[in-house]
Amino acid sequence: MSGIVHFPCFWCIWGLDLGVVGGWGWLDLLTHKVESGRYTSASEVVREALRLLEEQKKTRNARLAEFNRILDGRLAACDCGELVDPQAARERLRRKSEEARRRRA
What is the number of alpha carbons within 13 Å of residue 73 lying toward its C-beta? Predict the structure, then answer.
């Protein structure tokens, strides 16, 4: 398929205004995705994007729940008088931060 893919029904059915959905850049992205052959329609691209957003939300919520679980444990340990060496804690946080940055890169 070559040229521009037109989605007139897509915009009419959903009542979307290009200014609201991000302008022509988004339409170009939809066109490119469909023309690549990976997707057969604009609605398929949108469904995939929504699925990925939901997956990202679940991952973020799981990470936050794990953080809160660890934090609760550490706060409970402090309440029991178990203290942490500040230098060791800073070094551990620095290492974890660097590891996270490397994973994202």
Answer: 6
Please list the pLDDT of the chain residue by residue as tens digits (105 residues): 444 445 554 444 444 455 545 566 777 788 888 889 999 888 888 889 999 999 999 999 999 999 999 999 988 888 888 877 889 989 999 999 999 999 988
Global pTM reads 0.56
The domain segmentation of the chain, as residue ranges, is 8-104
Q: How far, in Å, CA of 101 to CA of 95, rounded?
A: 10
* Distance in angstroms (rounded) separating the CA atoms of residues 35 and 69: 46
Question: b or e along 2-32 (b: 16 or more beta carbons within 10 Å of the residue's beta carbon)?
Answer: eeeeebeeeeeeeeeeeeeeeeeeebeebbe
7 close to 27: Cβ distance less than 8 angstroms: yes
In this structure, the number of other CB atoms found within 10 A of the CB of residue 33 comes to 19
**Contact in structure between 39 and 32 (CB atoms under 8 Å):** no
